[in-house]
User: Which sequence fits this backbone?
């Protein structure tokens, strides 16, 4: 599945990035999970994503902003 390939490639970098912004480990993991859901939803809608890494980090930044 495309999701698993993309997610496994980027999730470790994403969680490290999130933890630089969010001290609480469980909240950081919740944010990571929310980003994963957003990726999954966009793949199902067949949204064109040219660069998954850039897209994921932008979504992660926005999700962190939404948290605050």
Assistant:
């Amino acid at each position: 599945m495309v999701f698993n390939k993309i997610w496994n490639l980027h999730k470790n970098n994403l969680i490290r990035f999130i933890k630089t912004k969010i001290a609480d480990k469980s909240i950081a993991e919740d944010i990571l999970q929310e980003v994963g859901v957003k990726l999954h939803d966009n793949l199902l809608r067949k949204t064109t994503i040219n660069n998954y890494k850039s897209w994921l980090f932008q979504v992660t930044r926005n999700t962190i902003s939404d948290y605050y």
Notes: The chain has three helices and no strands. Residues 3 and 40 are 6 Å apart (CA to CA). Helices lie at 2-21, 25-44, 52-67.
